[in-house]
Amino acid sequence: MASELRAVHYVNQFFAGLGGEAAAGTPVQVRREPVGAGRALAAALGAHARIVATVIAGDNYFSDERERARAAVRDALRELAPDVVIAGPAFEAGRYGIACAEVCRIAGAEGIPAVTAMHPGAPGVLMYRREVLIVPTSASAADMPAALGALARLAVKVGRREPLGPADVEGYLPRGLRKSGERAEPGSKRALDMLEAKLAGRPYASEVPYVAPEVVPPAPPLRDLARAQIALVTTGGLVPKGNPDGQTSGNAKRYFRYPIAQLETLRPGEWEAYHVGYFTHLVDRNPNYVLPLGYMRELEKAGVIGALHPWAYTLPGVSTPVAAARRLGEGIAAQLRDARVGGCLLVST
Amino acid sequence: MRLELGSFPVRDARFGTRTRWADGVLEIDRAAVLAAVRRDPLVSTVELEIARPGESVRIWPVRDVVEPRVKAQGPGVVYPGWFGRSIETVGRGRTHRLAGLGVPEVSSVNWHDAGGDFVDQYIDMSGPWAALIPQSRLVNVCCVVEPEPALAVQTKNEVVHRATLTVADQLAAVVRDLTPPDVEVFELPPAAASLPGVVYIQCVHSPQAMSHSEHTFCTGTYGLTRLAPPWLLHPNEILDGALSGPYRTMFATSWAVVNNPVLLELYRRHGRSLRFLGVIVFRTEWTTQDEKDLMAEQAGKLAAMLGAQGAVVTWDAGGNEFIEVVHAVRACERLGIKTVFLTSEDSAEGGAPSMLKPVPEADAIVTTGFFNTSLLELGRVPPVERVIGYRRKSAGDAVDATIAGGEAVETAGAIAPPWRYDDHYGFNRLSTFAH
After folding, report:
1. How many domains are there within chain A?
2. Disulfide: which of A117, A187, A335, B375 matches B370 by Cβ 3.0-4.6 Å?
3. Residues A237, A149: one domain?
């Protein structure tokens, strides 16, 4: 049998039994025993874990004296060196939920597994669900027994550093991670079972819940185009003829930039498109199709734009996961910003 | 439309003096089959090789896998419409099949010559990649074929696939007049009106825009691969190969389409828990937003006109096409048709949506896991003792996901799996989970 884990429990003034709003300014304190709600938690942990200490802070103190409170919690955890930190449950509480999540983050930074519990709509969830293991609870503390049971079970699991299964199996809120694994039935059968459930009005769980895509706010308009340095960027997979840098035709890991300061236009035969997603012959015949250098030079000479940036950036914008696309885009944007580029013409395909 | 499908199980295949099937063993007169292929003067070289499940064999590269089928009774020919084969409507009478046998199409010929869209799929007969690929569990009679090099790429594709179909025809012909050990009847008799009507919207990619040709080889409907408004097919037509030919993964091959478990499962539930109304074959990779939305709207309208209360949507492709596919899901839902979307997923790194364009109406998704094999933690696939096809990478000089750095590699060695997995039709249990 696994040895008994040493747990530290975090609670606020209310659940420690110190009082309500009047005691919300209570500074961080440590008691070497289960306190308040911690006594029921200790029962739920049973022989698997023992609460060796309770860290208590008032909700106002933790939010108003944020840095001091965090430092005190960190120092306490370093001294106590527990196997696991358990915070809450905080249910629907705003300040308390945020404090619980932040205590878990501090523990995580110290290499100590941690888990908390609160209502899925609580601010602590909205702010920290990607970083912190959170057991969902109902809105009300009347749900305390069920919440403690789920919290204790997960605390023992992470305290033992056992691998964690999927969110719905283990009973925590998804952290935005997706991992590969097998289900009991093949996809074809699951699809028709789900359809029959949906048609009959029976409950079913989509295996890919809706995640709203990130919205990128556009940069403010250029104040004076005639004085701005403009850069050319293309996701059309343009490479020098022969692809000397070994760019991929999709799912790019790198972007490349090529000097165009000495060029008036892109000449066919010197460039080609390497891209798995469109009819590249068009660009092979006229590379300006995805990098309109010739036209931009005309605008430059006419004084419509201030100057053309001496480097052109290219990559194939195809079959690229969002995170990789973001990394590539941020890299290009940072280089353009450092070169004081004011605006950019990004040609996609 | 009634189709009897007679199955002749194949446990093993071997070369012999005449082509015949008996007690699960297929004997093949290699010279006779090759002679049939060589009747096409545009074939430069052709060989037949056998690979069995469990062997240390890699088949490289694989363009398609065809299941040998033959019409024993009824109009038309199997895999109709390809390169002059009859276009008469199929799906009636009796069809015989060699169950458990595949004819992989092995050739260096690429789909088309635009961009870096190279043939990059292979079959291992054992090991971790084989565990994920249904065709690895087949006895595979490989057609290794090269066309005359002076031909245009489109004609090369025709020569190569015609050779594969010729091999399949030669093998299936020997069971045409035999009595099958197993017969399954496929028809859609009237079912209780109280059961919900369900359509299957099967999205298949068209490479027309990508290649600027209406004839580029790919999964075809009666041999047509061009962009066209949605087709309505009886599922029996599909069982006779009216929708066949490959796309870029082992799950979008002729074999996978006639053995599609979504189609078969819908059929088996007809009259029991649903009414299977038919298959809307939806061509994808339109180019403008208006075209994509028009086709999605029309697919939804067609489903509604068929009286559908429910729909299953599958697809076979990568990115661009996702828009019209997921908009077809949305169009159905907006018409009140309850829809399930069966799909693979992209990486969710950084909390990003794993769907290229998430839409709130797609509220019933079944996932067959990450399509990008680098997320499946397979590492490198172990070396094999024997390669059927090419001992070195043969598909162009691409720097693709298989060959890092652009150097040719020994295909018998430890190599990366093909970069796409993509179980379009839900053959496997692999999936993803929220953590």
Report:
1. 2
2. B375
3. no
Q: Is residue A198 part of a domain?
A: no
Separation in Å, CA of A248 to nearest CA in chain B: 5
A187/B342 touch (CB, cutoff 8 Å), yes or no: yes
pLDDT of residue B317: 81
Tell me which residues of chain B, numbers 113 to 132, contact chain A at a CB-CB cutoff of 8 Å. Answer: 114-118
Q: What is the spatial distance between Cα B302 and Cα B332, in angstroms, rounded to a whole number?
A: 10
CA distance B205 to B156: 20
Cα A235 from Cα A324, distance rounded (Å): 14
Quick one: average pLDDT of A254-281?
Answer: 94
**Domain boundary, last residue among A153, A170, A187:** A170
Q: How far apart are CA A114 and CA A127, in angstroms?
A: 16
Whether A161 maps to a domain, the answer reads: yes
Cis ω for the linkage preceding B61 (within 30 of 0): yes
Q: Does B355 touch chain A (CB under 8 A)?
A: yes
What's residue A247's pLDDT? 87
Is B368 in Cβ contact with A194 (below 8 Å)?
no
Compute the distance between CA of residue A237 and CA of residue A247 in angstroms, rounded to an integer. Answer: 8
Residues A79 and A144 grouped into a single domain: yes
Confidence class of residue B402 from pLDDT cuts 50, 70 and 90? very low
3-state helix/strand/coil string of B217-235: CCCEECCECCCCCCEEECH
pLDDT at A1 over 90: no
User: pLDDT, tens digit, for every residue of A174-215?
Assistant: 998 999 999 999 999 999 999 999 999 999 999 998 988 888
Q: B45 vs chain A: nearest CA distance in angstroms?
A: 29
Q: What is the mean pLDDT of residues A65-69?
A: 96
CB contact under 8 A, A213 and B353: yes
Q: Which residue, A132, A152, A170, sits at the end of a domain?
A: A170
Structural contact between residues B335 and B303, judged by C-beta atoms closer than 8 angstroms? yes
Q: Is the pLDDT of residue A249 over 90?
A: no
Q: What is the ipTM of this complex?
A: 0.96
The predicted structure's pLDDT at residue B119: 82
Contacts of B266 in chain A (CB under 8 A): 192
Crossing angle of the two packed helices A94-109 and A66-80, in degrees rounded to 10: 50
Point out which residues pair with B317 in neighbouring strands: none
For A123-160, letters b (16+ CB in 10 Å) and e give bbbeebbeebbbbbbeeebebbeebbbbbbbbbbbbbe
DSSP string, A258-271: EE-TT-SSPPBTTE
Start-to-end CA span in chain A (Å):
61
Average predicted confidence (pLDDT) for chain A: 95
Residue A71 has pLDDT above 90, yes or no: yes
User: What is the pLDDT at residue B404?
Assistant: 42
Report how far apart, in Å, the C-alpha atoms of B425 and of each of A52, B148, B251, B264, B374 are.
53, 35, 7, 11, 21
Q: Nearest CA to CA, how far is A207 from chain B (Å)? A: 5
Q: Do A180 and B432 touch (CB under 8 A)?
A: yes
Through-space distance between the first and last CA atoms of chain B, rounded to whole angstroms: 47
CB contact under 8 A, B196 and A190: no
A178 lies in some domain: no
Query: Residue B403: its pLDDT value, please?
Result: 44
